[in-house]
Task: inverse folding
């Protein structure tokens, strides 16, 4: 009734979301912010001008969901205007500049929050200073980092046993015996662990996953070993129902929705391999060449996303394609066997098409949980960060994917690498999933089942839906308690 609604509005929480400036952090946290707004809480996302512009086209802004912008310090760090996301980095030097600029956002954000204090702040863990700010204002803080809880459990266990740079080891103390074949770089682990320490001081962590995929055993393990609360509210991407909503997630796609859909519509069910390595990863040409050879040799249809941001704008047409074997485009693209998307692809829209058969992924958590939500099995190719742990969850624990055999754990996704994954390994992994056979059928069946579980979790009565109700109730209790004091 009208009265109930008014009462609901009156009691609504004012929540600020501060997403980090990288698609893998921004996209899921803004979808989660939208979930809170759909429950009629008063949500404000704090970000910078060019991110605000992208978001304005991607999320449903209204009286419950607003954006507050703070200036991006381009000039202070020597970046051109409009470069406001880690995904724009083309080399290590401008990656560092963009990172540095994000640390300079503290004063203007802090100023705004102090002038207009909310009931709660949800911030990315890459803004650890929010801890002090929330304490000062005596408001609850939830943290977010875009990781699976499984990966956080693995990171914590590796830390507790100092297992850095050992080539192969079993992660101790986890509910499953997880054997690693690559060593986490010490520098990365140090950074992540310091940031996680601040996460554990928050009132809880929001996880873009559903509890069935991380598994109750890992949620229990996390809560027991860290004493910290985890809220599984995902998969965030499932908030997007229509083709348009899926296509407009993140940045502006370089292909038209119509073109992409009609290409997919013309293909049989489960026949297309989708290849994408997220928003940050840049492979050297020789690796791209091996991928091209591997997928061509597999004989399967494909959509391959290759970032168009090599930073060499004066590159000639010939140089641009030098990572493709001779005649590749004539043989494959011409025959409608494959599509190469050079730049941002409408990933969630592609993954949810029935023509999709498998996803070759770098195991970034968003890509992983998006594939799971769509019931698509994976070919795992982790590159950096916590991706090697995600691979284990997908292939060893839940058995919804096969490995390509990547063993080089880099510090970033950018730049030269020592090892190349060869065309034979790529062909073999693609065939293992897409040629059919008992093993492939089983993996596909499990993947479909997890897709159903993901959708169920996000629906009314499902685990994530219930968790969202619970976290809102909890925050209201904290606020009301404070009001009474
Ligand atoms: N993404 C997309 N189109 C692209 C590349 C990436 O829509 O061409 C989206 C993808 O759906 C995911 C996010 O960008 O939501 C990437 O996050 P992920 O955690 O997978 O990897 P990261 O980019 O952080 O390495």
Result:
């Amino acid at each position: 009734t009208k009265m109930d609604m008014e009462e609901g509005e009156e009691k609504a929480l004012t929540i600020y979301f501060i997403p980090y400036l990288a698609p893998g952090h921004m996209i899921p946290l803004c979808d989660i912010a939208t979930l809170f707004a759909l429950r009629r809480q008063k949500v404000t996302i704090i970000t910078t001008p060019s991110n605000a512009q992208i978001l304005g086209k991607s999320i449903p802004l209204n009286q419950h969901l607003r954006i507050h912008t703070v200036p991006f310090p381009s000039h202070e760090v020597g970046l051109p205007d409009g470069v406001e996301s880690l995904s724009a980095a083309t080399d290590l030097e401008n990656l560092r500049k963009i990172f540095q600029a994000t640390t300079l956002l503290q004063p203007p954000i802090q100023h705004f929050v102090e002038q207009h204090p909310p009931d709660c702040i949800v911030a990315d863990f890459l803004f650890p200073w929010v801890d002090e700010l929330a304490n000062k204002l005596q408001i609850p803080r939830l943290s977010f980092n875009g990781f699976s809880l499984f990966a956080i459990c693995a990171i914590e266990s590796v830390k507790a046993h100092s297992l850095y740079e050992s080539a192969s080891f079993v992660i101790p103390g986890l509910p499953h015996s997880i054997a690693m074949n690559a060593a986490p770089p010490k520098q990365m682990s140090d950074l992540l662990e310091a940031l996680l320490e601040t996460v554990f001081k928050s009132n809880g962590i929001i996880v873009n996953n559903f509890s069935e995929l991380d598994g109750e055993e890992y949620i229990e393990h996390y809560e027991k070993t860290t004493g910290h609360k985890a809220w599984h509210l995902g998969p965030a991407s499932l908030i997007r129902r229509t083709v348009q909503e899926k296509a407009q997630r993140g940045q502006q796609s370089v292909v038209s929705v119509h073109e992409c859909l009609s290409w997919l519509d013309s293909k049989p069910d489960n026949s297309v391999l989708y290849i994408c390595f997220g928003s940050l990863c840049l492979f050297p040409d020789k690796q791209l060449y091996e991928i091209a050879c591997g997928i061509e040799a597999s004989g399967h249809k494909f959509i391959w996303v290759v970032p168009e941001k090599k930073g060499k704008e004066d590159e000639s047409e010939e140089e641009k394609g030098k990572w493709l074997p001779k005649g590749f485009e004539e043989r494959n693209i011409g025959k409608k066997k494959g599509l190469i998307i050079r730049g941002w692809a409408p990933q969630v829209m592609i993954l949810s098409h029935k023509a999709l058969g498998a996803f070759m992924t770098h195991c970034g958590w968003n890509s992983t949980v998006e594939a799971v939500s769509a019931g698509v099995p994976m070919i795992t190719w982790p590159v950096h960060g916590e991706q090697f742990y995600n691979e284990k969850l997908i292939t060893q624990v839940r058995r919804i994917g096969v490995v390509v055999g990547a063993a080089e754990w880099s510090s970033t996704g950018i730049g030269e690498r020592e090892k190349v994954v060869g065309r034979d390994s790529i062909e073999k992994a693609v065939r293992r999933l897409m040629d059919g056979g008992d093993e492939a059928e089983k993996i596909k069946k499990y993947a479909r089942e997890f897709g159903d579980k993901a959708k169920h979790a996000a629906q009314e009565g499902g685990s994530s839906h219930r968790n969202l109700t619970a976290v809102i109730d909890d925050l209201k209790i904290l606020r009301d308690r404070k009001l009474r004091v």
Observations:
- The first strand starts at residue 14 and ends at 18.
- The pocket of uridine-5'-diphosphate is lined by residues 23-24, 27, 249-250, 276, 278-281, 305, 344-345, 347-348, 364-367, 370 (CB under 6 Å).
- The radius of gyration is 22 Å.
- The chain has 22 helices and 15 strands.
